[in-house]
User: What shape does this take?
Amino acid sequence: MFSESMRDEEILNRELKNVEEEFAHMLMRIPRRNEPPQEPSAYWLHLEIIERHYVLEHAQIAPGSTVVEIGCGSHAITTVPLAYKVGETGRVCAVDISRWREFNRILQAATLRRRVMPLWCDATQLPVKSESFDMAVSIHGVRSFRNKDTIVKIFKEMLRVSPRLFVAASLPIAKTRAQKAHLEMYNLREEIFEALSGRKDDIHYFPLEKLAEFVVNAGGTITETKTVDTGLPDHLATLPKEFVEKIGDEEKRERLLERWEIAFDNLLKYGEEHPPVGIIKAVKA
Assistant: This one.
């Protein structure tokens, strides 16, 4: 764990030289994570925020824009760079249905809280008027949308409240051994959650073509698709072993524990890297 943090600190120091000076200063106001032992690195949050910052460069968000973000999550990982990019006169409406634990604290540390309006609701039924925003954004959120029908419903709502859609999601592609190690661990999450609670969460990554199909089925006209590779670490795939050990079904527990051990050994051996990211831009059909 210590060596992983040291490696990530080196990567973070390198990336801080590649981003805008103002963004770097803002980012470093956010404290390092003092998480439980299962967290592999004290710098994971900063690196994840930088990854979203790079992805959002492809959205071409103008200062002063109003943006609705679907699936902001408890750590405001995309909200932070979004709030930075919209500037002092812009606003971000951050939507999530349940995860808010660290949200305000992180935005306040980054001095961006007043640019953000949190909205606790179901993203398939946004309580806002049509075309209320300049852009609707989802970055690495599709994996938490439960199933294919929910994905289409959410994309349809995004197109209702904004004329422009920007979606980015990790793809099931491995160009490096570290990316393959990430996929091996991440692909256990859906089965582990289902075995624990009876419902799926963190569903498997979709190919870019399938993501585009969801957008079209939601009523969007795709204007651009591309694949980008940030080459940054991604530690969010790993669930603690203790989660797997709580599975009641003995056969499922033993099978998933065996796969977890193999995947974890590969993470230690090869590291853990973001898979390539698929990007889709669309407008209303």
In short: The chain has a mean pLDDT of 93.
